[in-house]
Amino acid sequence: MLIYYHGKIYRRKKCLTALLKSHGFTVVEFIGVRDSSLQWEALILVARKTGLSEPVGNKS
User: Which top-level group of life is the source organism from (predicted)?
Assistant: First the structure.
């Protein structure tokens, strides 16, 4: 699975990783893309489906 995300990279990296993990994926690689002024343009996450989804939040 390949996810291309354009936006606030460092704020979203942790959220996207948690989302993928909750659906049974493991992040294999992060690829940061910069423009000519060395500003972050995008983040590409490469993930592999590893197993069952994990529950999210507290279930009482």
Answer: Bacteria
